[in-house]
Amino acid sequence: MAMRRRWEIKQPDELHVLQSAQMQAISWIGAYLGEAGNPRNLEIVDAGQAFLKPERLKQREALYLASANDPAQHMRVATNHNDRVLGLLYGTQTPNQQELQSLYVDPEYFGTGVAIDLVEDFIDWSDPERPIELSVVDDNYRAQAFYRRMGFTAVEAPPRPVKAFGKVFKHLYEIDMVREV
User: pTM of the prediction?
Assistant: First the structure.
């Protein structure tokens, strides 16, 4: 467990389940909610609320506990001195791929270095001989700029609908980025 800045990067436990779900919902809605009348707003709010559904909380707790014992999964939270979740990262390794699957930061901590520390921790864990892949919403330019600063580049391919929470979004698209060896 490394102490960095005003937070600690560590393996989450069952106490972080609800906190991280609440932080993810706020982060998701804050990042993707469009202007009034945007047709995707209802999808965004529904998806944000999905983080807090009891069945999702049970899945999250199982994932947290499983990731602690599975060397192919990397789950970390950034917490402050009161153990409040400020950010969350989840990534995986398979024989064919390394993927940063989720990165969420409490909007109050955007631009503070929480995301940098979480991604650097993931890069340190990853196999340096293999690329790291991720997907990001195609119009989340802030996230894309962040990932470019972290060494990722966009993959030349058309955006595709986001698939999350057991559904395919109609108004939300993603692109792939890769951090080459």
Answer: 0.89
